[in-house]
Amino acid sequence: MAQCVQSVQELIPDSFVPCVAALCSDEAERLTRLNHLSFAELLKPFSRLTSEVHMRDPNNQLHVIKNLKIAVSNIITQPPQPGAIRKLLNDVVSGSQPAEGLVANVITAGDYDLNISATTPWFESYRETFLQSMPASDHEFLNHYLACMLVASSSEAEPVEQFSKLSQEQHRIQHNSDYSYPKWFIPNTLKYYVLLHDVSAGDEQRAESIYEEMKQKYGTQGCYLLKINSRTSNRASDEQIPDPWSQYLQKNSIQNQESYEDGPCTITSNKNSDSNLLSLDGLDNEVKVDGLPNNFRAHPLQLDSSSDPSNSIDGPDHVKSASSLHETKKANTGIIHGACLTLTDHDRIRQFIQEFTFRGLLPHIEKTIRQLNDQLISRKGLSRSLFSATKKWFSGSKVPEKSINELKNTSGLLYPPEAPELQIRKMADLCFLVQHYDLAYSCYHTAKKDFLNDQAMLYAAGALEMAAVSAFLQPGAPRPYPAHYMDTAIQTYRDICKNMVLAERCVLLSAEILKSQSKYSEAAALLIRLTSEDSDLRSALLLEQAAHCFINMKSPMVRKYAFHMILAGHRFSKAGQKKHALRCYCQAMQVYKGKGWSLAEDHINFTIGRQSYTLRQLDNAVSAFRHILINESKQSAAQQGAFLREYLYVYKNVSQLSPDGPLPQLPLPYINSSATRVFFGHDRRPADGEKQAATHVSLDQEYDSESSQQWRELEEQVVAVVNRGVIPSNFYPTQYCLNSYSDNSRFPLAVVEEPITVEVAFRNPLKVPLLLTDLSLLWKFQSKDSSGKDNEEVKELVTGEPEMIGTEVISEFLINGEESKVARLKLFPHHMGELHILGVVYNLGTIQGYMTVDGIGALPGCHTGKHSLSMSVRGRQDLEIQGPRLNNTKEEKTSIKYGPDRRLDPIITAEMPLLEVFFIHFPTGLLCGEIRKAYVEFVNVSKCPLTGLKVVSKRPEFFTFGGNTAVLTPLSPSASENCSAYKTVVTDSTSVCTALISSASSVDFGTGIGSQPEVIPVPLPDTVLLPGASVQLPMWLRGPDEEGVHEINFLFYYESVKKQPKIRHRILRHTAVICTSRSLNVRATVCRSNSLEDEEGRGGNMLVFVDVENTNTSEAGVKEFHIVQVSSSSKHWRLQKSVNLSENKDAKLASREKGKFCFKAIRCKEKEVATQPSEKYTFADIIFGNEQIISSASPCADFFYRSLSSELKKAQLSVHAEKQSIEDAVRLIQKCSEVDLNIVVLWKAYVVEDSKQLILEGQHHVLLRTIGKEAFSCPQKQEPPEMELLKFFRPENTTVPLRPSVEQLSNLIKTSLHYPESFNHPFHQKSLCLVPVTLLLSNCSKADVDVIVDLRHKTTSPEALEIHGSFTWLGQTQYKLQLKSQEIHSLQLKACFVHTGVYNLGTPRVFAKLSDQVTVFETSQQNSMPALIIINNV
Fold first, then answer.
1. Top-confidence residue, 580 or 1197
2. Exposed site from 760, 859, 962, 1125, fewest CB < 10 Å?
3. Would you say 192 and 149 are in contact if contact means Cβ atoms under 8 Å apart?
4. Using alpha carbons only, what angle is made at residue 562 by residues 560 and 564, rounded to the nearest 5 degrees?
5. How far apart are alpha carbons 572 and 576 in whole angstroms?
């Protein structure tokens, strides 16, 4: 239970006090009425004694009474109606609310921090009023009248006579059988005569004389002269006197309800006394009550009172209009009570109460106790006093109490008033009232036994209840509190006597006692036991107290607290106590909030919303409903729909209160702010026939960090080229689309007259569809005009002229249940300045009567495109995006700081040119190496001219705009006939095998020294594209060498002719997707020719073997490939002629066929090389058809150079990986085996497509770099290395000197033997055959080489002997020579044979070393063919 102002030791004595009746004459009542008080009310603030009182018990022991209080009330002859009591209690509770500025207690329990009101004043008020307004009943005497004050005024004509009348009246009320109410304690009631004297108006002497007369007649102990009204009421405002009455009068007591009637008392005859008896026993729920003032009948908790006419009241003066009562109450609030009383009068009243209690009441009580004691002793024939008697009763063997269920229900048993059992009870009650708890306990205990023996259950329960309380209150606590007495009493009242009022009193008292002993668990159980359906208010208050018990336990039970608070709130709500209901729900919410109890939270929030709305706390209602909607709801769709409608309804009411106020923030739909994307620029145009617009950037593209990094690198590359190789410090990559991955730390730049599209990601968390209407962006704009002034404009929808920013409005935007959907909203800036996009504004509504069929929302009216809106409210949601977390400095790492995110704050800059690019006849599929011609159209769609157009791509080998020569040279007529992309010349058939030579410089094709081959200027005529102008340029494409799908990124860069300070350049992106299928695979090797012809002293002949394989699978529809031409391109070498042995002229390859070609290559003439040694390439074409493709012109040369530069790039990268410090010697040796001959194979493919034959053409490149090493046209797949065991070893610091490989060494010296193929010798004439052999040694390197030729070599392997036989070299067996750079030296040797046969002359071993080196290397002959000679006998 909550903390109380009073302790239980103060509460119980205050709840059970001696009752005194007051009977006033009309005149006396008039005097007190001058103060707006009845006589009883006048005494109320002074009814507690300020000093201790003493009295003697039956044993003549002195007994001290502390803080005694008496209750004086006007006599009312009608028992209070249960309905009236209920109304009163209801008003008391609703009138007591927590104070506004009350600081709640913070209780920390586990991980809960709860703000809980520690006190519950409404409960205390309820309890006080409940105990005060309990109707008197026959089975107990605690609230029966002990005495009666008879009050008359000194101003009456015959005051003494008036006293007699009043005395008779009191006697009649007490002893006439017509009056069953009020109840009197004993027949001989104490009468106390009070003479009221009005000091300001009355005659004091007369009053004194009358008082003397009274003393004569009634004795000094029995009368009193009370002087009041020392001042007149009109002087009241001069001096401020305290008003002690207001606190008592606010709690309307039952007596107050009747106290405004005019007569001294309301006496009515009531014939139907039985029903009264019933209602006395508290069975008020069975008795229908009538005759109440109307305002009781109108109360929500009032029973229907028209059905039982038997209980109606006859008295005419009892029926009084409700309005007059209300008026009296209203008037009451503004009235000053006690206006005619001075502080002296206050003291007089206090003195009067003291006198009455000391002289009248207590002696009367003492006497009565003695009499009762004597009666009991005489009646029972027992010993001298009860004290000794009780000892006997207790010391005897205890009779076990019968269990409550065994006793038969005899609650209807009534004792006559003089029954001895009742006398014991009377005595016990009297002792209890004067705080003599020991004696009271003994008497109650005795009475309890008697009642139980008689099975008078109502009486027994009453005795048990008071025995328990007495035992608890006994000074020094001789015995523990007998809680089981209380439990039995409660059970008896409730189940047997069906009297909930008495049961409730038991529970209230017992719970307080248990709480004082910190037995919270038992107290809570007790309180919960008495919650029932018959009274919502009682159940609510008890449940709330039980909840407080749970939270006040040693280890607080938080969830039980919350659960019982909810139950209490529910019952408060049913009882019409809206404020208390709301408070309970709010307190419980603290526990359920954010703990995943979503359905409970929804219920609580919904109730809070409802109650707040009823109490017109609209803001609270809105926020509660908002919570239901924004939490991830687990409710059904129908329930969510109801919540949403309720929310919209409440919201509408709120917004109508302040129609001109700021737009409210709406909770639905969710906006994922960080997913907001901003796009600057126009939407992409769709493809138009063969015209395909550049893909550029659009909101439909997914973000890909890899590709965005690629685009950034491309832009940096082109910017660096434009700025002479340096990226400017203020360069910032262009971002057309800003999202959560982009860098949003700077203010983005937008261009005037180009739209800004904001994509807002909405999500509907509900299962019901949401309809947003009139959806648009909310923004703030600060214009910067040319004069530099700032004009600020904040608009939701702009109406100003001229319009600064155009705003697009989406009229209807439907989001189905649990759907995520993006809305794209546009703004059109017409002025320069700073724009801030704040949020979105829309009407939120739901669809009327939507149905869900199989989980699919079937929306009526969808087909018309208009949804019927049930109800909608206008509001806004802000877009607030949190920037990235900062993590650079130490301070940022240790704290949590976020950078700015400025994607919604663009700066609108001056006009810029805008380029659109269209691709015409652009293929989607190519064969590897296929050449295709397309066209590109560049259009300037802005009002500014553009210049400096460039394109940059990571794959420059894929496309070309033609070399510098291509635009100038018209296409040859024959090429145009065959629609060929190449420049061709018809040739005669004679020159079939010899090469046609031309040359070209790589500078012409944009791949000169030091340039960036990826950045290609677009050859615009006049280099400027004017506004509205368009230009078409040819573009050749070559299918990449690997098969598969290729994404090729083009970035077009351009600038404005007028330099802009903010935006230097603009870009346009295009991603081409090309699917390539396999065509030819070309492999080539080059090796030295051993022949001596055409030597010209240069050592320069080589053989080139080219293998071409058709790897195309028939899916592509390719019938066959024709190799039409093989060209070479090199700075130093060229093909001379074809040495194919077959006479087959046209080289056709069907599927999976392979063709072999062999060509002879020679060095170029010096003069051909000398002109521009670095960049001049010699092209040689060997033609297999009847037309020559000029390989040194576009596009053949373009693609050759492109592939060359990309290969060189790869080669450089791999070289960088190697050690830079290669020794010179090794380098020289390596150079010997190097060759830079590049082969271009040109082909045509015949394709059948849709029964038409097409001719495709293409080219493959093979770059030959090393002698004897096979080179390929397409990159070879690397086999992944097998897994190896990890080896752990210590790295050694010795560096191994780099040695050239065996292959490189074998190429240092080229050897060739010249001898006759067959030699005839007459062995019968001469047994030795001598054959002259010339050994040709050719130095391939640029350095001097020392050579050792060793002829002593014998073939040791037996196989070689068997095959070739044996022979001997004659003459010198070892030669040492030095060969100068590229020198050729011939040695004349003689071989000696003794048999005929076939011999291999290739046995000399040749060792070589560079002259200035120490190490000797053997040149290996393994690459050369066996030098076979046939020796014949003639």
1. 580
2. 859
3. yes
4. 70
5. 6
